[in-house]
Write a structure and sequence with these properties.
The complex is a heterodimer of chains A (281) and B (333). Chain A has helices spanning 2-5, 22-25, 32-42, 44-58, 63-79, 86-98, 105-120, 132-143, 150-160, 170-198, 206-220, 229-237, 240-253, 262-276, and strands at 204-205, 259-260. Chain A is mainly α and 281 residues long. Chain A has a domain at 199-269. Chain A has a two-stranded antiparallel ribbon. In chain A, 27% of the residues are buried. Chain B is 69% helix and 1% strand. Chain B is built from 18 helices and two strands. The longest helix of chain B has 31 residues, at 265-295. The chains are: A mainly alpha (281), B mainly alpha (333). Chains A and B meet through α1, α3, α4 and α5 of A and α2, α3, α4 and α5 of B.
Chain lengths: 281, 333
Amino acid sequence: MATCEKRRSAPAPATGSGLVEPVRAGVGGREPESEAEFLLQAGVTSMVREALLKVLEARPEEPVSFLASYFEKLVLSGAAGDRHGQQQRLARALWYVRLAHHSHRTAFNNNVSMAYECLSARGRRKKPGVNGKIYSELLKKICQDGEVPEEVVSSLLRKIQCRDHEAVPFDVFRYGVLSCFVLLEFVAKADTLYDVLDDGSGVADKRVCQAVLGTLEDALGASDFSVPIRYLEAGSKLGPDCLALAMDKALLERKICSSMNREEFLTKATALFIAKVKPID
Amino acid sequence: MLSPERLSLPGPEYLAQRHVLTYMEDAVSQLLENREDISQYGIARFFTEYFNSVRQGTHILFREFSFIQATPHNRASFLRTFWRCFRAVGKNGDLLTAKEYHCLLQLLCPDFPVELTQKAARIVLMDDAMDCLMSFSDFLFAFQIQFYYSEFLESAAAIYQDLLTGKNPNTVIVPTSSSGQHRSRQAPSECSPLDGVEASLFYHCLESLCDRSKYSCPPSALVKEVLSSVQRLTFYGFLMALAKHHGINRALGALPDKGDLLLDPPMDQELEKLLSQVSGLSISTPAGSSGDIANLPTRTSPRISSPWKPLHHRQKVDTESDGSTDETESSEN
């Protein structure tokens, strides 16, 4: 980087002096007003503020890498600003929704609405809005991340997809995006669960697997989750005592060693999850 | 993927812990310095390159010392850069003095303080014989400990000093003034190598120091390992043991293991290529010429002209023809 290779004679700015204020961040000494003015006029101030807000929202493990890719995206979106190609808008939206983990709800919601805006901004003449086609494409791209089997993805998409020409309201958009992210996490968790069950051998006992799946189904099943107490109930059903009991029983009952492979386990587990996803109308 | 501790920190604390503001402020002041170039370059692109170079660790090149030591990442980046730039020194097996190593450091950071180099050299040499020669790897590992854990070592030196004089080390105040540093680092070197402090007591003090310190400390499990192998030790013995400890080097993460320090496959390939080119050329000459030069009279050697040193040979021809005319003249006389 050429700019860094210049030797600096000016003293380094004081570090850790609260949130960045361009006046203070500037090199001390010469004409602080004009420097502040320059930063304001060139849009540096607002750009830095926005970047720091994004960092604070997402709290990334490695903020430097986060900032590098954040600014890179800004460059790309600036360069593509005239064309507004669909693929670029899609990539940008994808980047937005991945910025923060969905458990960080406020940040996630903000980013989803940024993605929604980004996708709905089209040519000046057309009305803004997200259609079903680009919405489905975004969902597919999100799901491509994980090790999710193809048929699982398509069965989820069947439930939350809209028709290609349909306008997708923001609520549906958010719901769909969130469902995909939760699915990804669910699959990852189910995968580690299988790691425990197979004990490193690569194959797990079928009965034990079925007992685990049964308990999971039992916990997820029955009534709707709008009542908060249901969360506690589900949690207690998956508690160590309940689950261990079921697994123990299954181990005692087993006769001939039949096994269940990872794929089958994952498919069955995700089927339980997808059954609980409410289809959109 | 989620470390809840990171998410529950207040915003400013999170930013400070990860040194986000250090880099952001530095980026802005760099931008101000180069503002003439910005208009054609784009601000977002400038920031992208800045943060990419921070990520890759090239951002510390030729920067002022205060910036280089500002964050642990900067220190590690500087160590890695120093190693990469000058490992050829180690490869050649050259031994250099502290002054010479300091010159190398100043090539990367012009205002690098000489005291730091001297302290590192003192770890290697164990005394004040500062004009002794050191190998590259000895210096590098000692320098790494001294530079990366600078503040920790200052406090440890003060603790050691208090233990030596029998004071209660828990009242140790972290030295801040340069005079305090000077005092604390001078005294240990004066004591004879036979005495020192009790290792276990020293460890307990260091453990509580690490708990309190906001600066980087070596992992206390590894410090314990170093200190549990001996009954008593001197301060420089302690520093030497830290410098030579593989685990601490690994935990720091800037340099490879000592065995791999001089491995550099791309450089080796490059050298190999150069060497083969050179030897390919020299095969044609020495096989023909060097043997001939030894056996044949010098007068015939210009005839075996090698195409890649025409100037040199032409000179040779001239001098020899001069010589021969002298000879002939003298023989005629």
